[in-house]
Amino acid sequence: MNKIYINGLGCISTQKTFDTLFLEESAVNEVDTILSIHQPVYKEFISPVASRRMAKGVKNGIVASTLALREAQLETVDAIITGTGMGCIEDSEKFLKAILDNNEEFLTPTSFIQSTHNTVGGQIALGLQCKAYNLTYVNGSISFESALFDAKMMMEENDASSVLVGGIDETADYTMSLFRLAGFIKNENQGLDSFLKSTTKGVVFGEGATFFVVEKEKKATSIAAVLDVEILNALEIDKIENKIGSFLASNNLKFIDIDAVVLGYNGDMDSDAYYKILSEVTFANTPQVYYKHLSGEYDTASAFGLWVGTKIIQTQSIPDIVKINTIDKETYKTILLYNQRNGIDHSFTLISSC
Amino acid sequence: MEALKQELKSKIIEVLNLEDITVADINDEDALFGDGLGLDSIDALELIVMLDKDYGIKLVDPKEGKTIFKSIEVMADYIAKNRVK
C-alpha cells in the first residue's frame, strides 16, 4: 500500500483534547461508568441557527472536522468519509419515543432528518458546500478503520488527493440503559488500578468525534503517515501474534521495528485477553500505550487511539497517563495500533513519522 | 388571547429549540419566517404538527401555513377560531 499523510487532526472527546498539546490536562474518571464529552464552545464553530437542530454527535463531528481542516490549512477536500457504530442515536431515540408517546401520530421532521448514520458526514458537507464523495461506514468497532481504508484506497486509485476521515459516536440515555441491562457497561467504575488487570465483564462507555485530514502528498506540515490498515471480522486469540507478524511482514517490518504499540484495552476481562498476550509476550520490550481509560469504550474509540498514536509521533513523547509500561524510546518512528472488541472487529493500523 | 400568545411563544421556542431566544424577545407582530425569527421550511412542518397535536387543527394544504404562520398575532387568531382542543 502507498503511504498517505496525516496533515490535520481534530478531536473532541471525554478529555480536553482541543486547545491543548497532548493530554496534559487529562484525568481518569474513576467514578462514572458512562463518560460524557468535554464540550467545546460550539458557537465558535456553528451558527446558532444551524446548531439548534443538531444533537451533540453532529456538533462534535463538525467541530472536530473544522479543527482538522484548519490544521491542514484546507478549505475543502475531495471526499468526506465517516465511520460510526451507532450513528445519531440521540435523535433516533427522540424520534422513536415520539412515535410511542403519540401513538404513531404527530411525527416531527427534525429528529427524523437528523437521526441517520450519515447525518454528520452530510452536515459537514453542507457546511463546506462540498459535493464530493461522501460515505459513512457502519461496521461496529471497525467503522472508523473502514473509513480510513476507503480513504487510502481512493488515493491509491487516484480518485482523491485529500480526504476528511472521521469516527463519531454519541451516547443516549435509553440505549445506555439497555447496554447496562445487557451487561455491556460495568455496574461500577472499578478505577484505574484494576483497569489493565480487570476481572470483570463490561466497560466504561464513552463518546467522541475524531477527524483526520489525510492527503496523498507529503507537505512540510505533515504530522505522520499511514502506512497500512487491515481489518478482520474474527480472529482466534491464539492466532493474534501470527496475524500481527504477517501484517508487519507485508510492510517489510518485524516486531522489533515497532517503536510503540497502541492497544485498545477497555477493561472487559474477555476482550482484554487479546491485548494481554501482546503486552506480556510479543511486545514485552516495546513501549505500550492504552487510551480507553481516558476516552471510554465506543465503536469508534479507535479513532481516538489513532489520534493518540499520531500525537506521539508529532510530539515524540508518550504522556505518563497513557503508558502501560515504563519502556521509553529516544524516537518514535513506527507505531502499530491494534483494536478489537470481544474478539471481533479486529483492526491493525500502522503509522510512521514522515 | 394574550395567554394564548404567550403560550405559543413558549411552545415555538421549545419545539424549534430556539437557543438564546426568550418569550420577551418575540413581538406579537414579528414575522416568524424570513427576516423576523428566521424560521425555515422544516420549522413550518414542526409548526403544522404542533397545531395538530396541541390544538387539533389539521392543515390539509401545507401552503396554508404561509398565511397562518405570518406572526404570533395571526397564528393566535387562527388557533382561537379553529381549535378543537
Automatic annotation (TrEMBL), chain A:
Gene Ontology process terms (BP): fatty acid biosynthetic process
Q: Which GO terms describe its molecular function?
A: 3-oxoacyl-[acyl-carrier-protein] synthase activity
Q: Name one Pfam family in it.
A: Ketoacyl-synt_2
For the keyword S-adenosyl-L-methionine, the answer is no
User: Beta-ketoacyl synthase-like N-terminal domain spans which residues?
Assistant: 40-173
Q: What keywords appear on the UniProt entry?
A: Transferase
Question: Which superkingdom, per the lineage?
Answer: Bacteria
Alphabetical GO CC annotations of the entry are: cytosol
Designated name of the protein: 3-oxoacyl-(Acyl-carrier-protein) synthase
Organism (species): Flavobacterium aquicola
UniProtKB/TrEMBL annotation, chain B:
Please report the organism this UniProt entry assigns to the protein. Answer: Flavobacterium aquicola
UniProt entry keywords in alphabetical sequence? Phosphopantetheine, Phosphoprotein
Q: Which SUPFAM superfamilies match?
A: ACP-like
Asked if Phosphoprotein is a keyword of the record, the answer is yes
> What protein name applies here?
Acyl carrier protein
**Is Phosphoprotein given among the entry's keywords?**
yes
Instruction: Write out the coiled-coil annotation as residue ranges.
Output: none
Query: Where do the Carrier domain residues begin and end?
Result: 1-83
State the InterPro entries in the record.
ACP-like_sf, PP-bd_ACP, Ppantetheine_attach_site
Alphabetized PROSITE patterns for the sequence: CARRIER, PHOSPHOPANTETHEINE
